[in-house]
Amino acid sequence: MNQSSAVLTALAIALSITACRNEGKAPEPSPTPEAPAVTTGTPPVSTPPPLIDLASPAPLATPGLETKTGEKFDFRGTRWGMTKAEVKKAEPRVPGNETEDSLSYKSSSGEQLTYITYQFKNGKLYRAGVLYPEKLKSDDLYLENYEGLKQEVIKAYGKPALDEETPLNQEAVIEPDKKAEAVCRGDLMLGAQWNVPGTVIILMFRGDGEKCLVSLIYASEEYMRSISDQNGSGSTGLSQ
Based on C-alpha coordinates, what's the Rg of the chain? Predict the structure, then answer.
């Protein structure tokens, strides 16, 4: 495993801890899941927007760049450091699930169920993302989704700083045409990383032998640097 693969693997594992705990568990529905969030002053969205647009009540630009109104966002209509109350105002719906340090919203991408998640530390937003929890008919469909999503992210943010296929089982023989099977049984992990102003974006395709998961995670650069320090890598994996 080369240095960049090791960095990406460490970051991916660190970022996926919370997601792994919740895989296969749909967020608890709120008493009125379709009710609009009255604090936004914006009509509810009847059809979830395309993933990469990540539309919210306010127009969204690439992280770190200004919108036409002069506002800057890091994920949808939110910024790192926002409180949970502020994130709720930025979302057009009532959360399907809420804990002391997280919010989750049920959405969709195409015909697939997705969950938009927000994570808070010390009351401040530091991470968010989109999870694809649905079980698909074949392992290859997960790989198709991963590759298709990667191309969409490339269109939005350019080429990734890292694009790795990381063996997790050194004894496994991975055939080129059975890459998806290798990921889903836990022998391989696919990951790509983009670095934009103030934000690190990681796209992952991983499995554990029982289920597969594709996820797109946005995290504050400050948080990623702290994860890097905890792992002793001395680097965030950011391009020099």
Answer: 18
**Alpha helices (H) in 51-201, listed in sequence order:** 84-90, 139-157, 179-184
State both tokens at 209. Answer: 């032998």
Burial of 114 (0-12, 13-18, 19+ CB in 10 A): buried
Q: What stretch of H or E contains 14?
A: helix 3-22
pTM of the model: 0.73
Whose CA is closest to 129, among 16, 38, 207? 16
For residue 135, give the DSSP letter: P
d(CA 192, CA 114): 20
Q: What angle do CA 115, 152, 119 make, to 5 degrees?
A: 30
| C-alpha to C-alpha distances, 79 to 30, 70, 84, nearest whole angstrom | 25, 14, 11
pLDDT tens by residue, 124-177: 999 999 998 888 999 999 999 999 999 999 998 999 999 999 999 999 999 989
